[in-house]
Amino acid sequence: MTNPQWSAGPVLSGRGLVKRYGQQHALAGIDIDVQPGEAIAIVGPSGSGKTSLLHVLAGILRADSGEIWLQGQRIDQFGEKRRSELRRTEFGFVFQSGMLVSELTAEENVALPSLLAGGTRGEAIAAAREWLGKLGLAGKEARRPGELSGGEAQRVAIARALTHRPKVIFADEPTGALDTRTGRETMDALLAAAQASGAAVLVVTHDRELAESMPRTVAIRDGLIATRLAA
Known about the structure:
With 231 residues, the chain is α/β, with parallel strands linked by helices. 35% of the residues lie in helices and 27% in strands. It is built from 7 helices and 10 strands.
């Protein structure tokens, strides 16, 4: 299904998103638009619905009601196979722990989404090396996650999120396991790389200073958008 009113509008939209766990509302009817290339910080207290919003928009979780549109196409009605394909091709992910495969090298971790999407190994590895170089990891392509610092491992995760040129990157507390300086450097690298590729970025964070540095902040409280702040 294609939204007839969509032309050059938001890359990703949620309308009336509701998600419940038992009797508890994680999301209580949220509307949100994400513009192409936009960087948004999602903030709020623990349990407010931040991560649920991220996971629903990304198709990791199904909303109980509401609509999700990706460039004019309604995606919340897709089956699991199609949503999984979207997560491999249109979305990128950076998590707090990086979630790298410990047995794979840095370049193999970065190449993995492209390989899963059916790309050739040669092309996937070449793209992985290019992104690792852009993120300051040239010469460390053959290292495994255990041989990298925390900041380096997160840069590998960023490269993995970007290598297939997604439309939207979802980052859940990407600096939460890093010290302040490394976290800021890692976040700067993520935003710069995303901007260069044209990807929008949604970042869930408890870091107030990080949120205030982002172009746009969306505050969630009790499953609802409480305020919209612009830098």
